[in-house]
Amino acid sequence: MGQCVTKCKNPSSSLGSKSGEKEPGCKSHHKKGAPCKEEPGPMCGKGSGDPVANGTKTVEVTAETAAPPAPSGETCEEEASAGDGEELSLARIEELFGRYKDEKDDAILEEGMESFCSDLNVDPAEFRVLLLAWKFQAATMCKFTRKEFVEGCKAIKADSLDSICARFPCMLLEAQAEEKFKDLYRFTFQFGLDSEEGQRSLYRDIAIALWRLVFTQHTPAILECWLDFLSENPSGVKGISRDTWNMFLNFTQVIGPDLSNYSEDEAWPSLFDTFVEWEMERRNRAREEEERRCADDLRPEDEDGERGGGMGP
Predict the structure, then answer these.
(1) Is the pTM of this model over 0.85?
(2) Do 73-174 and 14-61+200-292 fall under one CATH topology?
(3) Which residue stretches does the UniProt record annotate as biased composition, category Low complexity (predicted)?
(4) Domain boundaries 73-174, CATH class
(5) Residues of 246-274 as b/e, b for ≥16 C-beta within 10 angstroms?
(6) Closest by Cα among 39, 52, 6, 36 to 240
């Protein structure tokens, strides 16, 4: 997938691009008069409200597996603090930050981030790094400001490489909780934007990589079909809007993998209409091809091994 979390030194990875264009917007009208959807819900704790799908019912995001309830962030932090045997040291956090800080900027940048991940024994492109960025509330990929790093370490109660590594299991468990994952999911969209350029939508290939990343622990059944659709790009979409990103999480929870309960009359982004039509056509073609193969296998063969119904004259 490339260096998708940090965008570091991977020229073939689209996540190194800072471009991002808006996709075609949501439907301007619906057959039953449903209004165009506004951007649903908060991003990183900002704003309020959840999107409404299928007309009247507020969609709740639920975990796909019957995993045991994850502890709250506070519980994780209390357990981590209790197991350390010593108090958190701001001086050690500052010293750790200084080890990776850029020489000219008061932040950990690309080179320092790669060294930091290497010392943590994690790949910069893996899910645990996304979790760390989420806990640090990092505003930009491949960058930790001093404030983000210090406040993030304080939040997870870690002041050394070993103690940060020790927090990963708890962070992985925490991200399984319904509301925590929703927050992580929405954070991931904002994290993928180039805030310095005022980007408002994710470049399509960046969105594809981030969708694969954020669903590392629980992969929706429809995910790969959706990503295949975006990769083939029959709709010509160049960017993924916040509305589409947020609504896709609801889509995975409300719409079954056979897509039979999807309705264009509901207030889904118009890109979802195109996807469902494309996917159903693809499945129909695959079914017809399978039926043809089965029919060919059942046809009798003549003595020469050629298809046919009997001997010639």
Answers:
(1) no
(2) yes
(3) 58-67
(4) mainly alpha
(5) bbbbbbbebbeeebeebeeebbbbbbbbb
(6) 39
Domain boundaries, the chain: 14-61+200-292, 73-174
How far apart CA 239 and CA 201 sit, in angstroms, is: 6
Per-residue pLDDT of 295-307, as tens digits, reads 777 776 655 555 5
Q: Convert the pLDDT of each residue in 101-119 to its tens digit.
A: 999 999 999 999 999 999 9
Contact (CB, 8 A) for 205 and 15: yes
Q: Which residues contact 251 (CB under 8 A, 6 or more apart)?
A: 53, 222, 268, 272
Question: In sequence order, what are the beta bridge partners of 32?
Answer: none
Q: Provide the strand spans (E) within 12-140.
A: 52-53, 57-58, 107-108
CATH of domain 14-61+200-292: 1.10.238.200
Spatial separation of the C-alpha atoms in residues 52 and 35, rounded to whole Å: 11
Pair type for strands 52-53 and 144-145: unpaired
